[in-house]
Amino acid sequence: MKHAWTAAAVAGVLAAPSIASARPVTFETQLSDYGGDGAYVAIYLTDRTGRYQSTLWLAGAKSKYWRHLGDWYRPTGGKVKVDGLSGASVGAGKTLRVTVDLADTLLDAGYEIHVDTAVEKMKENPSEVVVPLTKAGTGKPAAGRGYVKSFRYSL
After folding, report:
1. Residue 132, beta-bridge partner list
2. How far apart are CA 112 and CA 5, in angstroms?
3. N or C end of the chain, less CB within 10 A?
4. pLDDT tens-digit series, residues 41-68
């Protein structure tokens, strides 16, 4: 899959002590045809208290625009290492598919996946999508409140 090389970069950060306890997780974010420029998209994890834990993917290479991804940017200050975890912005009506390795211990442990979106000269959508990271949630679509038409993940 596109961006599959990301798995290796994330595995060291999110995998438990051995790779054997991690699994590939694919995140699929389909954008609506909102009629604007490419969207900046941050996909990240928070723990059971809502605290930022890790960036899974960042679509949009120009760091000067990252501040518009409010709920992701606030705890990170845009100073997280995103090498290997970033790519181009996502066009209207397009789908972003990203596969990363996540530790099995994150599943059903109170973690949530967040998706923030922003488009130049249009509305910003912090935490546009928030879904629990559970085995039962795999494959279930969630609608966003802005540019995200559908978001799902699969184990």
Report:
1. 112
2. 23
3. N
4. 999 999 999 999 999 999 998 989 999 9
For the segment 15-19, the average pLDDT, to the nearest whole number, is 43
Q: Strand, coil or helix: what is 112?
A: strand
Total-model pTM: 0.85
CA distances to 17, 121, 141 from 130, rounded to whole Å, are 27, 24, 11
Query: Which amino acid, residue 152?
Result: R
Rounded Cα–Cα distance for residues 44 and 152 (Å):
14
Q: What pLDDT is recorded for position 4? A: 37
Return the bridge partners of 131, or none.
113
In DSSP terms, 153 is beta-bridged to: 27
Q: Are 117 and 144 in contact (CB under 8 A)?
A: yes
Alpha helical stretches, state H, the chain: 6-14, 70-76
Residue 49, token pair as written in the block: 């208290």
**Residue entry with tokens 């970069």:** 9
Nearest-CA neighbor of 7 among 120, 110, 98, 97? 98
pLDDT grade for 102, boundaries at 50, 70 and 90: very high
Amino acid at 31: L
Q: What is the pLDDT of residues 141-155, one digit of tens each?
A: 999 999 999 999 999
